[in-house]
Amino acid sequence: MRSLVLLAIVGLAAQLVDGSLGMAYGVTSTTLLLAIGASPAAASASVHLAEIGTSLASGVSHWKFGNVDWKVVAKIGIPGALGAFLGATVLSSISTVAAAPVMALILIALGSYILIRFTAFGLPRRTLDKPLGKRFLSPLGLLAGFIDATGGGGWGPVGTPAILASGRLEPRKTIGSIDTSEFLVALGASAGFLLALGSQGINFAWALALLIGGVIAAPIAAWLVRHLPPRILGSAVGGMIILTNTRSLIRSDWIDQGDNPVRFLVYGLIVAVWVAAFAHSLREHRKTPAADAPVATSQAEQRQAEQDERAGQEQRGTQPDPV
């Protein structure tokens, strides 16, 4: 019973991070299940089964707060479900050990780019009107879904930085769309695991405990991502990507040296830079909050913004611009 309560708490914390930053639910949950002795396939299967419910709750919450681009969800989610199904069915015969450090290096580079871009310049508003096409999103979804199923997590760490780095979708909509499309990925992975393992290969008690915690956290995380300024959110996501994938790289066969204390120095330096970047973004946002505010994404929000502008002009004694 105690382990199930712990899993529920982990599910809550993992979904809070995932719903706010667009990543880390699967990685966090799978890591704990592996620590208590679950096989990789059983751990990934249980987590993805729980993600059917948590991603659905998260998607509804993000939709309510206006954080979802449904075109992006369709373009990346369907290939993602296919990739997850393929990854789940071949997990027992495909090893991702050799590919892990290469992927970690790519993600560290993307995370560094995002951290620098958002910390130094804020939201790249001039590119937000350029739609993301299938040529970019479909291969990305296929790859991210496959990695997510075979590695017990990866949909957010692969999909979120790639879309953010494109500069074509603001951070809150990137996170909301990735979290919403994860529902399709979880369905595809679960179908693959059920086909490969059967129901006896999945611990439904683990999945239920993770689900309960995740459902509780989903609306809180969606509210956070709706109201956090893009500049601050971008810095937070970039730091999370760098730290998570540096840890994976250090623990890979390329570098792993057991309990070498140097790795803690590396983690400390990354955290120090991350905190400094976050503090800088916060200071810059306080100086110019209007310039860094989330962009209105619906007609109702646009009308409200126009009304606020006219009211401000009237208070300053100027005539409002014609609409």
TrEMBL record:
<keyword id="KW-0812">Transmembrane</keyword>
<keyword id="KW-0472">Membrane</keyword>
<dbReference type="Pfam" id="PF01925">
    <property type="entry name" value="TauE"/>
</dbReference>
<protein>
    <recommendedName>
        <fullName>Probable membrane transporter protein</fullName>
    </recommendedName>
</protein>
<dbReference type="InterPro" id="IPR051598">
    <property type="entry name" value="TSUP/Inactive_protease-like"/>
</dbReference>
<dbReference type="GO" id="GO:0005886">
    <property type="term" value="C:plasma membrane"/>
</dbReference>
<feature type="transmembrane region" description="Helical">
    <location>
        <begin position="204"/>
        <end position="225"/>
    </location>
</feature>
<feature type="compositionally biased region" description="Basic and acidic residues">
    <location>
        <begin position="303"/>
        <end position="313"/>
    </location>
</feature>
<feature type="region of interest" description="Disordered">
    <location>
        <begin position="289"/>
        <end position="323"/>
    </location>
</feature>
<keyword id="KW-1133">Transmembrane helix</keyword>
<feature type="transmembrane region" description="Helical">
    <location>
        <begin position="232"/>
        <end position="250"/>
    </location>
</feature>
<comment type="similarity">
    <text>Belongs to the 4-toluene sulfonate uptake permease (TSUP) (TC 2.A.102) family.</text>
</comment>
<dbReference type="InterPro" id="IPR002781">
    <property type="entry name" value="TM_pro_TauE-like"/>
</dbReference>
<feature type="transmembrane region" description="Helical">
    <location>
        <begin position="262"/>
        <end position="279"/>
    </location>
</feature>
<feature type="transmembrane region" description="Helical">
    <location>
        <begin position="97"/>
        <end position="116"/>
    </location>
</feature>
<keyword id="KW-1003">Cell membrane</keyword>
